């Protein structure tokens, strides 16, 4: 059984590489029972999406607001 | 009041005026330098990259309607310049320097108990609708604050991975880290970001 520390590590590594079958199963079993790690795993996807939005500058920055007032 | 407002707006109306506003340009240059220094860790190369990006963007300044478009454009160019520098250069860094300090480890292990399970108060909660957060300007202010709070080396590899978009091999080569050390650092960075966003946005400051 994985600890939460190990489970979050796998959830993070899943953003870098495909997990092995064994890793996937261990993580799945852990997150089925652990809401904290399940939430952490979901937030990894949110974090990546947020970074993509941030990197493309595709968000409503204070500068945009200035422009809207023109 | 009306007069001063229209004057201020007038300054932003055409892209060419970016060139004439020294204060604005200097602020922008400082932001770019801070970002480039974090990624490249070589003041000289960072300044070159920033200068090239600024020149490139100012050449086309006329085609931008406002400052936000200009800023997005200039940072997009800077990102590419930095990626070029990083890909070309083989910089050797001490692994110990990059792995961060021991205090850093302690701060992180405080999230978990001795058996590696979440401390009750640190257990991640379910976040609200993320797509909805992205539409709120205040979210991005919080997000940037959390990014800025990451320790330098974690910020560096995290931004290489998620902002510049380099893959694991490219980052490991650039900063002379093993794949496993890189994964440890990215894991730490994500734990910190998760915690920071949860405290500052999803749990607390949401209605700020």
The span between the termini of chain B is: 28 Å
SSE topology string of chain A? HHHH
Number of strands of chain A: 0
What is the quaternary state of this protein?
heterodimer
Estimate the strand proportion of chain B. Answer: under 5%
User: Shape of chain A, please?
Assistant: elongated
Rounded mean pLDDT score of chain B: 77
For the largest beta-sheet of chain A, the strand count, sense and barrel status come to:
none
Q: What's the overall geometry of chain B?
A: globular
The portion of residues assigned to helices of chain A is over 70%
Q: Largest contact between protein chains?
A: A-B, 42 and 49 residues
Strands of chain B, count? 0
Number of domains of chain B: 2
Please explain how this structure is put together.
- The complex is a heterodimer of chains A (70) and B (208).
- Chain A has helices at residues 4-13, 21-33, 35-55, 62-68.
- Chain A is mostly helical.
- Chain B is mostly helical.
- Chain B has 11 helices and no strands.
- Chain B has helices at 2-13, 22-40, 43-59, 67-88, 95-99, 102-109, 130-134, 137-149, 152-164, 168-175, 179-203.
- Classes of the chains: A mainly alpha (70), B mainly alpha (208).
- Chains A and B meet through helix 1, helix 3 and helix 4 of A and helix 1, helix 4, helix 7, helix 8 and helix 9 of B.
Label this structure with key terms:
heterodimer; A: 70 residues; mainly alpha; 4 helices; elongated; disordered C terminus; B: 208 residues; Rna Polymerase Sigma Factor, Chain: A; Arc Repressor Mutant, subunit A; 2 domains; 0% strand; globular; disordered N terminus
Question: What's the topology here?
Answer:
The complex is a heterodimer of chains A (70) and B (208).
Chain A: H1 4-13, H2 21-33, H3 35-55, H4 62-68
Helix pairs in contact in A: 1-2, 1-3, 2-3
Chain B: H1 2-13, H2 22-40, H3 43-59, H4 67-88, H5 95-99, H6 102-109, H7 130-134, H8 137-149, H9 152-164, H10 168-175, H11 179-203
């Amino acid at each position: 059984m994985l600890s939460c520390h190990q489970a979050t590590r796998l959830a993070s590594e899943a953003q870098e590489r495909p997990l092995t079958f064994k890793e996937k199963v261990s993580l799945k079993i852990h997150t089925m029972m652990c809401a904290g790690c399940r939430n952490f795993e979901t937030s990894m996807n949110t974090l990546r999406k947020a970074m993509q939005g941030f990197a493309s500058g595709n968000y409503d920055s204070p500068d945009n607001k200035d422009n809207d007032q023109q | 009041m009306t007069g001063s407002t229209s004057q201020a707006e007038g300054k932003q109306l055409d892209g060419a005026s970016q060139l004439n506003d020294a204060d604005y340009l200097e602020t922008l240059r400082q932001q770019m330098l801070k970002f480039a220094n974090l990624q490249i860790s070589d003041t000289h190369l960072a300044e070159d990259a920033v200068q090239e990006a600024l020149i490139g963007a100012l050449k086309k300044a006329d085609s931008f309607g406002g400052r936000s478009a200009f800023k997005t454009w200039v940072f997009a160019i800077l990102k590419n310049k930095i990626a070029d520098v990083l890909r070309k250069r083989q910089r050797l860094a001490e692994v110990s320097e990059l792995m961060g300090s021991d205090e850093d480890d302690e701060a992180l292990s405080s999230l978990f108990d001795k058996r590696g399970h979440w401390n009750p108060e640190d257990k991640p909660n379910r976040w609200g609708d993320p797509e909805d957060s992205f539409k709120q300007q205040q979210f991005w202010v919080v997000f940037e604050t959390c990014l800025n709070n990451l320790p330098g080396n974690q910020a560096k590899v995290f931004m290489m991975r998620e902002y510049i978009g380099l893959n694991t091999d490219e980052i490991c080569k650039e900063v002379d880290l093993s794949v496993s050390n890189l994964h440890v650092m990215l894991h730490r960075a994500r734990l910190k970001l998760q915690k920071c966003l949860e405290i500052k946005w999803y749990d607390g400051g949401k209605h700020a």
